[in-house]
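Slide 14.
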Amino acid sequence: AGECTVTSAAFPVLVKSNPIITVEANNTEICQGETVELTASGAESYIWSIEGTTIGSGAQIDVSPLTSTTYSVVGWTDGCSSAPQTININVTPRLTQGTLTGTTQYCQTPGGTGTALSSTVSGGVAAKSYLWEQSANGSSNWEPAENANNGATYTPSISEAGTAYYRRVVE
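Slide 15: predicted structure.
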């Protein structure tokens, strides 16, 4: 018996590159309630997720996390997927400020001071900065209060007669 050999026609196999993507945010440190824009690039389409749960698609999504959250994105080009890329958004709890308390009426005392104005503050980070402001009408023209105005409490002057309005800005 003779040896028979047959060779098939060439059969092409194309191995496509996986896309390599990058991800960025317009801000990675936000206060609770703020929105951040996440953007991916390097592929034709994208799927965004949190812990395996799909939350959106497209190169850009807007998110408003309530707590610090890690977002993952996978890019697709020509049916091939990228390695997942992640970005963490750190969320500072919302600041809340209680009602200001303190004495609201005094007799004028040259060189005197009233009792301290104060209120509670919760949320945010442990280290807070304070600025006490004053206004003659309580609705506009706010300016830094006289004397030491950067503490948790503020002691107003009672040297001059008249009404002054105070507020505290906390960051």
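Speaker note: The mean pLDDT is 90.
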